[in-house]
């Protein structure tokens, strides 16, 4: 971690600090751009709402000019945290994976039918289905009667598998080490112990991931059958029978 800036409070980010923070943020956001839904990022990102393309380096440089050496790292941390919220693709992916888990052997549902069943835009859903296919959760079956089906048994696919396939594996919390800035900043060698806030966030992230790992698609199917309305279940069976004819 770069030592705290010695510039006076309120100094614009225009020198070495700007280059350091922009380089760091650019690398992190480029990873997110590759692993997360571009639609979800576009909707949530402050930068994306102000610039024609998401996460362009010039956008970060422009943003740095409006912040001081103290506020720019905080701004970047807020931006990353905003992006790290679970996307709507998680909900869509889990529902689709749960539905195809109910299919008879050798059957498949096309993306258009999965979008129809859940009432979501087909073009957006297709991107999430492709991500699940790349992760080995769904199998893409070609042909006129093709579509998607599970690539392995539902009992072997965890909720975390689906979450990470769509939203990536990055932790939900990003520590920017603000304890090393401000009037109490000391040399880096003095920070011998991890930040307590970072530590508790890591424990929370580990607990969250453990819970998602403990639940499989087979569990979700069983819970859905138990908790769903009998009328909804009947309508779902009728819909599947008509589609699979």
Task: Describe what this molecule looks like in 3D.
The protein is mainly α. It folds into two domains: 77 residues; 160 residues, Arc Repressor Mutant, subunit A. It contains twelve helices and two strands; from the N terminus they run ααααααααββαααα. It has a two-stranded antiparallel sheet. Helix 7 packs across helix 8. The longest helix has 20 residues. It starts with 15 loop residues before the first helix and ends with a helix.
Q: Which short descriptors sum up this protein?
A:
two-stranded antiparallel sheet, 2 domains, mainly alpha, 245 residues, Arc Repressor Mutant, subunit A
Give a summary of the structure in a few sentences.
With 245 residues, the chain is mainly α.
What is the string of helix and strand elements?
Answer: HHHHHHHHEEHHHH
Main sheet strand line-up: 1-2
**Largest beta sheet, briefly?**
2 strands, antiparallel
What class would the helix/strand composition place it in? mainly alpha
CATH architecture of the largest domain: Orthogonal Bundle
Q: How many distinct beta strands?
A: 2
Instruction: Please state the overall shape, judged from the principal axes of the Cα atoms.
Output: elongated
Mean pLDDT: 76
CATH superfamily of the largest domain: Winged helix-like DNA-binding domain superfamily/Winged helix DNA-binding domain
Number of structural units classed as domains: 2
Portion in strands: under 5%
Number of helices in the DSSP assignment: 12
| CATH fold-level assignment of the largest domain | Arc Repressor Mutant, subunit A
Rg, rounded, reads: 23 Å
